[in-house]
Write a structure and sequence with these properties.
heterodimer, A: four-stranded antiparallel β-sheet, B: 11 strands, 0% helix, globular
């Protein structure tokens, strides 16, 4: 079974631009969560989507948004990029239900210049 | 909200020795505690997890213990091998929530 797939793997953007990252979950997984990983702040939860609805949101500004499609694929968007948005963005998928084991993709490395 | 503290930040051991990484959490309602291993250029990989109704869980060379009263949990790796070298993260979450709060990570180096 294929794992969580994130595209692209690397991105370079300039300040003020916007960016869209994509995540395809493991087949059959309906929940997708996004995390930001930086050397200074570590791994921080951004938001979770389940059945196309955002169920939970971390403490990030409104410039960070996401969505989920009917096939469970998810995208996250960051508008008006800032230098501090440079990070590894990780997507994790999990089955619906009480078990909340999350499986991570390899991430998208975003560099903002 | 939940806060997870992880120690040590770096750990070097000789091949064959044991390694122990400790985490404490703040929210007594948290009931799911996974451990992830992250190698360079890769995403975190789940290596073991424990739920609050269990005190200890073992999988070959890896074990996790949980002390709910003290609100801390630990990862134990025995007979370490060079391929165990990586960054290890503990995490905690509440109920069925898929919002994981991570510790700051431990860089484990196994010296041959």
């Amino acid at each position: 079974k294929a794992g969580v797939t994130q595209t692209p793997r690397y991105l370079i953007k300039t300040r003020g631009q916007q960016v869209t990252l994509s995540c395809s979950p493991i087949s059959g997984h309906r929940s997708v969560s996004w995390y930001q990983q930086t050397p200074g702040q570590g791994l921080q939860f951004l938001f979770e989507y389940f059945s196309e609805t955002q169920r939970n949101k971390g403490n990030f500004p409104g410039r960070f948004s996401g969505r989920q499609f009917s096939n469970s694929r998810s995208e996250m968007n960051v508008s008006t990029l800032e230098l501090g948005d440079s990070a590894l963005y990780l997507c994790a998928s999990s089955l619906a239900g009480a078990k909340n084991i999350q499986y991570f993709g390899a991430g998208t490395r975003l560099s903002v210049l | 909200g939940e806060n997870v503290e992880q120690h040590p930040s770096t750990l070097s051991v000789q091949e064959g020795d044991s390694a122990v990484i400790k985490c404490t959490y703040s929210d007594s309602a948290s009931n799911y505690f996974p451990w992830y291993k992250q190698e360079l250029g890769k995403g975190p990989q789940l290596i073991i997890d424990i739920r609050s109704n269990v005190g200890e869980k073992k999988d070959q060379r890896i074990a996790v213990t949980l002390n709910k009263t003290a609100k801390h949990f630990s990862l134990h790796i025995t007979e370490t091998q060079p391929e165990d070298s990586a960054v290890y993260f503990c995490a905690a979450s509440l109920g069925s929530a898929r919002q994981l709060t991570f510790g700051s990570g431990t860089q484990l180096t196994v010296l041959p």
